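Quick one: structure for this chain?
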Amino acid sequence: MPDFRKILIAVKNPDAPRHPGVDKAVHIAKQLGASVELFHAISSPVFLDLEPLTGHTVAEIKREALALRTARLEKLAKQARKLGVPATSTVTWDYPPHEAIVRRAHQARADLIIAECHEGRRLKPWLVHLTDWELLRLSPLPVLLLKNTRRWRQPAILAAVDPSHAHAKPARLDSAILAQALSLKHSLRGSLDLMHAEFPMGFGVAYGDPAIDASTLAAVYEQQKDRSHKQFKAFADKAQIPRASRHLLDSDPAFAIPHLARKIGADLVVMGAVSRSGLKRVFIGNTAERVLDELPCDVLVVKAAKVAVPRVEKKPRGIRVVAPQPFVPMPL
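Got it. Here's what it folds into:
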């Protein structure tokens, strides 16, 4: 079974007076017997026109900001060590934040990233916040996004799989989802429920088309649903999941997963994601990004082993210096 030994905790705002998300992440690490690295990337741009106003050079601004945030992160690391969790801290100038997190996780040889959900600009109501989505898309590592500050105590875990591969996910992804969920269940002494939501997209598009015979469409749908049910049963039987902990829903996963998570009082949903780009990403979307905003609990997003992800440069980008913009008078 997979095991989380080194966790990278992405600290969104070291200047905040309280850090309940960091406290929860450290608590999870302690339960798992893992070490942590607290990480923050300073991504704010430095404007060259501030230099004559403040009397500080860009190098001085960079050094002072780095020292201030390092001290604050080290204070959090010290608190973690007092709780018995081996902890270090790292602050760097790098941008954008999601790429910086992926870079640092690779450098630190972490096997899990924990981050709080961001409150940022959204592209569409059904998309997750931009930073969160890009982190899920780019990271080859599992990413645990914290939706609340409630600590886990023998957590109820819901694993969402797709044995029929109706949503274009590779077969090995289901194995990765189940392996992570089982590992957490045993490590945290929690409970595990397994679900599959069957809702073929093609039937929703075809329904109502006068060129397609409704009875034929219904028959094909029933055949596919029966096949999907058998595949889910076979997957659950092989994993030795008790029947009372199996949930097969004839619904869109984007609605079914949050609904079931609320119904069973899940503390954590474990699900998979497939990196997409270009038009395919725009039109097909991604179950993980559609589900995230609706979930009332934390979500662990995993990818299949050796999955291809967009390439992220290994070297940090450093400080982002912005040249002063020329003054353009507004027309009267």
